[in-house]
From TrEMBL:
Transmembrane feature ranges: 7-29, 102-121, 133-154, 174-193, 234-255, 284-306
Family affiliation: Belongs to the binding-protein-dependent transport system permease family.
Annotated compartments: Cell membrane
Keywords: Cell membrane, Membrane, Transmembrane, Transmembrane helix, Transport
Record keyword Cytoplasm present: no
Membrane topology: Multi-pass membrane protein
InterPro entries the record matches: BPD_transp_1_N, MetI-like, MetI-like_sf
Protein name per Swiss-Prot or TrEMBL: ABC transporter permease
Species the sequence originates in: Paenibacillus gyeongsangnamensis
PROSITE patterns documented for this protein: ABC_TM1
Amino acid sequence: MTFLVRRLLLAVPVIVLVTIMVFSLLHMLPGDPATVILGQEATPDAVAALRDELGLNKPIVVQYFDWMGGVLQGNLGRSLVDRSPVSELIASRFPATLELTIGTFIVSLLIAIPAGIVSATRQGKWIDYFSTIMALGGMSIPHFWLGMMLIVFFSVQLGWLPASGYVPFSEDPLGNISAMILPIVATGLRESAVLMRMLRSSLLDVMHADYIRTAYSKGLKERAVVLGHALKNALVPVVTTSGLIVAGLLGGLVITESIFSIPGFGRLIVESIFRRDYVTVQGAILVSALMVVVVNLIVDILYAFIDPRIKMGKGAE
């Protein structure tokens, strides 16, 4: 487990650097949060009083350490706009993004793995060309355009699914599932194209290895060779790509959430930036950075199970 500890230790300075950069860049943006909160009609005295109340008159270094001191105690601060705890705002928005991320990833795997295997094992055949064309199309078509087309066809024309909106699963399971199908499919098709191309390329490399030829020479059937030997070793780059995809999805699917009116994590960040709600943006991006670290740690653990050459005690070099 030494390499896992080393990964965690390396993540600490990365997170600190992220907080410094985000804190500094946000405070360089034009606009005064106090003016945004009170409106343009506010008097200078009222603006000055609110700035003093919010601690905005302190030097930026002092503001940063005040904020980090609260973070280390589990306090992400309060929104500058409505004074709600940032942790509660994130907790209220994160489940929708998490559900969208999990659904997208499952759909992408269900499409990418069979398509990648068939394409690699039937290289040069019509089904390989068809899968490749579909994958290139999936990567080229913007998912927001695909999302709008799905809305037009399945919601407007057929009336099968709602065009937008979000209902928590705990309140209405059926309504939640029906509302999430279109955004999950719209995003999952693109991600499946990326994973399919990666799996196909990795499998083609593995299929030419000596141990694969040895397995065939022993009389093993193609299914046993591909699923029992080749696929496991071909999954390492796929796991890496999957980790990047999941980290990106958890960071917020702003466009997808906006098109389908999903109150997710990404929309919270964008809305807070427009409102100059620095504290909320800082807390949300800190959570995003932590999620990236966790995803990367999970990827490292998966490496050890997938590739026997990686020793848990010596690191994943």
